[in-house]
Amino acid sequence: MVNRRSFLMTTAVAAAAGSLRAEFAWPQGGAEALGFDEAKLEAARANLAGRATKALLILKNGRIALEWYAPGMSATTKHYTASMAKALVGGTSLLVAMADGRIRANDRASKFIPQWRDDPRKSKITIRHLATHTSGIEDSSVEGIGHNDEPGWKGRFWKRDPDPFSISIHEAPVLFEPGTGNQYSNPGMAALAYAVTASLRGAPQSDVLALLRDRVMRPLGIPDEQWSIGYGRAYKVDGLDLYANWGGGGFTPRATARLAEWMMHGGKIDGKALVPQRSIKQALAYAGMPVPDRTKSPNTPGSGLCWYSNFDVAWPAVPRDAFAGAGAGHQMVLAIPSLDMIVVRNGNDLVKRGEGEFWQAAYEQLFAPLMDALGNPAKPLDPLYPKSKVIQGVSFAPESTVVRKAIESDNWPVTWGDDDHIYTSYGDGTGFEPPVNEKLSMGLARIEGTPEQFQGINIRSSSGETKGDGAAGSKASGLVMIDGVLYMWVRNVSNSQLLWSRDHARTWEKGFKFERSFGSPAFLNFGKNYAGAPNDFVYTYSQEGGSAYVTDDAVVLARAPKTKLRERKAWQFFAGAADGQPVWSAEIAAAKPVFRFPGHCQRVEAVYHAATRRYLLVVSYGHNGGWGIFDAPQPWGPWSVAFHTEYWGLGETHGYRIPTKWTSGDGHELTLIFSGLVYNGVSNDAFCTRKFKLAF
Questions:
Q1: What is the C-alpha separation between 415 and 422, in angstroms, rounded?
Q2: What sign for the dihedral angle of Cα 94, 96, 99, 100?
Q3: How much of the chain, in percent, has pLDDT values that exceed 90?
């Protein structure tokens, strides 16, 4: 039956900050009004109903799009969570403890589990490892054998004899070095429950049940009778009251949805934050650890802190900001912030044993049909330009060949100097080894050598270096050397500013600022010391907006004579084309896009590729691993697509640069410089290089 009533909850809450009465309502929204194709949504529901589904609740924009229960199930009936408890219980308790400063993701677990301090492997395990199944602790499940029939310590774990926590800490072995692999681990989660509870010593809520009840569930208006955890009991171990966080929960679909909605909205209720938004973001963001084996199913997701993440498009039809919790029998909660959408499904397995892998079934039977009913909102947008007729293909060297130096420094605009070295600037780090003695928002460096064997040398400059972090600190966005003078665009300074150095980056002079737009400009680079430029103009591209941290719809272009770069009045702005020729204006307000790709323009790079006589515009689509190379016969176009990807497979990367010095004589072999975050246990927050080839 379909329940047409709004979901109303009112409950008095004794929270840590005092008494709170929470009331919330999910009004009916009407599927069509919320953007669903009603026929497709009903077909998806009917398919799920025929696949052992007992409950299906879909919220969108704070309204109920669909709420359906099989006979014997209702809005107030608790359903077992299975391993969905890892997110609902384990993830939520961890984030609250982190928000309170009692525990950190990078803490060694032995800080809270003293029994591990002298163990050569367990002493290396961090909270992050436990929360992402990368600790190496062996799982307690044996495929094809019922839990209670499993041998040895594994069977006793499930029988809870004498308790699962002691078994997990003392008996479960570590199969590999922590952080080097991915092994689903229920005992690892038990160890996490122990560590989180140990961190609560002396807190107003000293166990996970009290923490969830007083800090989250009651403030959210979820009655005590609509949820339970830990197989209904605590285990007294080492003076701690420990509750299972790997399973053993019972939640109504509405309780699950309410909790996930709170997470999706950044931890706020009625405009008030129960925990800082940064704690929510940390819990939900991909945690950087090795992803699981995807040979059986490409739909197996990576992990945040106890929550699954779609950061690398494991669920292609689902937006990348989606996160989920999941358990045996396909207990599922899916949250999609960009769509303001929650899906809860309870029941038994969606497919029979042997007919499909767990995540493949979840994606094909639940996620993808619902996205289809919404019109496939995650369908990639194709570039607005035709495929290149000159550059036939782009192929990259294997991921294993990526070279990473200057760890924990990023950005890296580059230019080919008159002394045959590459000059660059790094951000938010300490540069190449040996590092400088303080973290800089903007530092400078010189690179000597070939792509196969190079050395980075930090250049200290009191007039060029800046301090700060992220958007709060100025950073270089573009470099070019012309006639021995190094010019640098600096962003995050209320748009951008031009600086120059006459002594190879040791001292800098400051010039004018662009007063609008041009938030992250990059020079068009040619050969050594600007050799090979076809005329006396210097060109600068930028995303059209004023911030390097926003993804814009277009790229703009400006130029100035190379002898007058330092004069603001000498700069002209591309203002469109007439009869196939560019129109230039002295007014920055008249600037028009030279390149368009809605929602895909954030930070750019531009180089001239002499072998093809093509201008290459490299456009980063954000910090999510999506980017493209576009080629044209002139700096202003017309553009065609040489390479385009919404995700190239290395995690959340950004800042793509092509040093012209490292292009082979025939133009076929090039090197890409990029940065990013930790992916698969390896840090891309570095000076990363990867060779690639152009076919032409």
A1: 6
A2: negative
A3: 92
- Please report, to the nearest 10 degrees, the dihedral formed by the alpha carbons of residues 128, 260, 623, 685 taken in order: -10
Exposure pattern of 499-530 as b/e (b: 16+ CB <10 Å)?
Answer: bbbeebbeebeebeebeebbbbbbbbbbebbb
Return the percentage of the chain with pLDDT > 70, whole number: 96
Residue 5 pLDDT greater than 70, yes or no: no
21 pLDDT tier (thresholds 50, 70, 90)? very low
Pairing verdict, β 627-632 and 640-645: antiparallel
What ranges in 54-149 are assigned the alpha helix state H? Answer: 85, 92-99, 127-131
Q: What's the token pair of residue 661?
A: 């010095």
Phi, psi of 331 (to 5 degrees): -75, 120
Judge contact between 447 and 422, C-beta under 8 A.
yes
User: What angle in degrees, to the nearest 10, is found between the helix axes of 152-159 and 186-199?
Assistant: 50
- Classify strands 341-347 and 302-303 as parallel, antiparallel or unpaired: unpaired
* Cis status, amide bond into 276, omega within 30 of 0: no
Mean pLDDT over the full length of the chain: 94
Residues contacting residue 491 through CB under 8 Å, at least 6 positions apart? 474, 475, 476, 477, 519, 520, 521, 548
Confidence of residue 272 (pLDDT cuts 50, 70, 90): confident
Rounded to the nearest 5 degrees, what angle is found at the Cα of 311, between the Cα atoms of 652 and 276?
90
- Tracing tokens 């009692």 back to the chain, one arrives at 102
Cα-only R_g, the chain: 28
Per the DSSP assignment, residues forming a β-bridge with 447 are 422, 456
SS3 254: helix
Residue with tokens 């992916």: 679
Residue 591 gets which letter from DSSP? -
Phi, psi of 279 (to 5 degrees): -70, -40
